[in-house]
Amino acid sequence: MKKVYRFSLERKKTTVFLKKNYKEYLSELLLNKFSDNNFSGVIYFDKKLKTRANLLKVDLEKNGAKVLLIPAPSGEKSKDIDQCVLVLKKMFRFGIHRKSFFITLGGGSVGDSGGWIASQYQRGIAWINIPTTLLSLVDSAYGGKTALNFDDCKNIIGSIYQPEFIFIDLSFICTLSYRECYSALGEVFKYGFIFDYNFLIKVFEKKDKLLKRNETEWRKVILSCLSYKMDLVLKDEKDDSGIREQLNLGHTFAHGLEGGSNLKIPHGLAVVYGLLFSIHLSYLRGKISLFQRDEYLNFLSDYSFNDLKKNISKNKVWNSMKKDKKNKGQGVKVLGLARIGKVISIESVQKKEFDLIWRIL
User: What is the pTM (predicted TM-score) of this model?
Assistant: First the structure.
């Protein structure tokens, strides 16, 4: 069964397909759209997905496409600017042109870096995103934010560039580890805190099934996250009015952790710890009550920061937070909560507040 979701954004329409075994359908789709223009393109893929990438290449070539396969380093290494420049060079030498397609096959890091590459090559070529990890399926695949890391700062270089097509293939879920599910739930809980108490309750109650890779439950979660995120993106695609900024709840501390650990902490786990930080800061600033704080912390009670923080430099995390792109001037800005469903901006967070919460976490 195929389900289709279409979102009309400022400059481009994005179509999201929920479909297993997308390969043949994708080839037909690209053939109809690009075959009149020297049919060619790139498959930029996580190197762990080489077999899938090769099968997709063969299918496209059967339809007359000239295809360049480019493996991406796993994880955050793919978001290095020098690595991306090498990809651009390969594309130019291969003869990729403005009417070519660019497919990303992988998790959030491959989508972030590949989307940026697609946005930069000849001022932008058609991007097709096939997310293969839960973190990308629940969050990063949607909304068009592309990103590279720079100078130990997370996502400091980037563009907003919408994919033409996104393929959600739930068959990838059965290939993922418990740790990946555990990490991905961080972004899922974030959506609950931002949007909907009832959704938060449902995720909390179903978390054991989700951790066991129950496809039915993950399908519900993925479609809910897609709906929540695109609702904000449609109102504030370029992040100009502050509406879309709500999606960064938990991310200032999360990006600080990632920078402070040399990008070794999985993003979803970092977001969980960022949510914990935001909850404590909201209470410390008098934005929520003690009852609210304890209730919110209970949703995240399966996650412990104690063992992790022994191996991370607190000062390095703080210094990384000071470089976060959401900051204005010299102050550190953190998104907090007034209640579930209402995100607020907490300005000028001080080092002494950071130190106190670090001790509590």
Answer: 0.93
